[in-house]
Design goal:
With about 300 residues, the chain is an all-alpha fold. Helix 5 runs antiparallel to helix 6. The protein is built from 13 helices and no strands.
Length: about 300
């Protein structure tokens, strides 16, 4: 190879190397130029940097003095702003836990919720109060507010009576555990109202079964009335319906006992006249079997 040709090839190779180095330098320069831009993008995705220019400063809010919150609640109660009063009293519960202010606030919140008709909220607050302060002097009032919240939601007898049952349970608790409280007389009266409602539901179902000639099921419902609610006004009809159902089942002894207990305890009842007429039509007379569950149920309470 001639000296001139070698020089030409060397020059060509040098130019290729120089071009490659130049390209690498350009790429490196672009990469360096792009690094800040990439950092800017990442910074923009960082939520810690979103509000840098808003001048936000974390600040700890001071609690409102307890007596001020309590007085606010009282003012709102007087103005019949029960929802607002409940909010003020609830702040005492939140801001002053394990204190007398919490106890006062929680009970007053329960009252305000009850007054506003927010019965489910009142029930929840009353339960919380009873759980936190079971030995407080005014715990009977918490029971009373809870009971009344159920009582005010009792539907007509054709519907589910779960609220009647819960109200009755709470009124019974007041009567049994707090007999000297100022709420006991009203609790005793409303307990009877709830029991009458529950008995009425059983009677309605029993009559349905009786009309369907499902006498066994009917007896079960009327028996429930006598077992649990015999001090209600429905006891008289239940005894007459038992007379009817037992005659249809071919159990005259039980039918005669039901009529006899009805006549002994409610001699002037129109239901006794109907029961007596049913027996007479079958050639029977009222006759109490002391061994019958009906006789035992009434004698247990001293009614027989």
């Amino acid at each position: 190879m001639t000296q001139a040709l070698k020089a030409h090839q060397f020059s060509k190779k040098a130019r290729r190397q120089a071009g490659a180095l130049h390209g690498a330098a350009v790429v490196a320069a672009l990469a360096l130029a792009g690094a800040p831009a990439r950092a800017d993008v990442l910074d923009s995705l960082n939520p810690m940097n979103w509000f840098k220019g808003d001048g936000y400063k974390p600040e700890v809010l001071k609690d409102t003095p307890a007596d001020e919150l309590y007085n606010q609640g009282l003012v709102r109660l007087k103005a019949r702003d029960y929802e607002g009063a409940a909010k003020s009293f609830n702040q005492l519960d939140k801001q002053y836990p394990y204190s007398q202010w919490q106890r006062k606030g929680l009970l007053m919140a329960t009252f305000a919720q009850f007054q506003s008709g927010a019965y489910e909220d009142a029930i929840g607050s009353a339960k919380r109060y009873i759980g936190l302060f079971p030995n407080a002097d005014d715990v009977a009032y918490a029971y009373y507010l809870e009971a009344m919240s159920y009582y005010n939601q009792i539907p007509d007898v054709s519907r589910d009576q779960d609220r009647s049952a819960k109200a009755a349970e709470l009124f019974a608790t007041i009567v049994e555990k707090y007999p000297k409280s100022e709420y006991v007389d009203d609790a005793r009266y409303k307990l009877q109202v709830c029991r009458d409602q529950l008995a009425g539901k059983e009677m309605m179902i029993g009559r349905y079964y009786l009309n369907q000639r499902n006498y066994v099921a009917a007896v079960g419902r009327f028996r429930e009335v006598l077992a649990k609610y015999q001090t209600t006004r429905h006891a008289e009809e239940a005894l007459m319906r038992l007379t009817e159902a037992y005659l249809a089942l071919g159990l005259p002894n039980e039918a005669q006992t039901a009529a006899a207990v009805l006549g002994h305890n409610f001699p002037d009842s129109v239901w006794y006249k109907d029961a007596y007429a049913l027996l007479k039509n079958g050639g029977l007379e009222p006759n109490e079997d002391k061994g019958s569950w009906i006789s035992k149920a009434f004698n247990k309470l001293g009614l027989g």
